[in-house]
Amino acid sequence: QLKLLTTIYYDNKNHLIGFEQNEKKFFVLTDQMGSPLFIYDDNGLLIQEKFYGLYGRSLIEKNYQEKKFFPFGYAGLLIDEDLNCAFEKTNGKLFDINLGRYLVPNFPLTWMNKQTYLPTIKNPLDDMNLYKINDEIYNVNEIIFQRLSHNDILNQLQNLNYDFSNLFDSILSSSYVNNQNNIFEKDSFLYTSFFSYFNDYYSISYPNQFTYSIAHIQ
Fold first, then answer.
1. CA neighbor of 96 nearest in space, from 147, 36, 151, 54
2. What are the residue boundaries of the Teneurin-like YD-shell domain, all occurrences included (predicted)?
């Protein structure tokens, strides 16, 4: 069985910069996260080109010469192509690059309670999601989600990107509305069921004829 000795080179940021196989040197160009994008040989010829998905799955891989054994991918992590998983550098945990989730949970320190068998959960939204990616973007979104008013339906719908202005426009432009103008009267069923609540919180303005109407919170 042929064994291939590969020497990996890193910079001071722990990013891949090159490797050596069979006394041949190759240079690696990475992004800001350390994911290898381009691999060149010692003559400057492009060997391989890679592009990744949101969670690290290799979307595009172009080999311009014979493919080299280089099992590194997203964020410079060691990739198991059979499992579609990456090994975390610190603890060696398996990370599913298709789902964007760890296969092993990261138990928080707040769960370490010697007096009880059950964990102490102070923040269920944070502590129960043990398989998440612990990055700045996720943490910021989580903080914003916690600040939402869970009792205000309008705030919840607005944060879920429900657009009331498009709904209002579609009703106004329908043939039913044009033929039945009395449905906007205050004693009509449509007004009492929808527009009375809508008008209490929103006002409709038309900036110009080329844009959709905008619903402003009063």
1. 54
2. 1-137
**pLDDT tens digits, the chain, 218 residues: what are they?**
567 788 999 998 888 999 998 889 999 999 988 899 999 999 989 999 999 887 888 888 999 988 888 899 988 999 988 888 898 877 778 888 888 888 877 665 555 554 444 455 555 555 555 555 554 444 444 445 455 544 455 555 555 555 555 555 555 555 444 444 444 455 555 555 555 555 565 554 444 443 333 444 44
Query: pTM score, two decimals?
Result: 0.51
For the chain, the domains span: 6-79, 106-147, 154-217
CA distance 135 to 41: 34
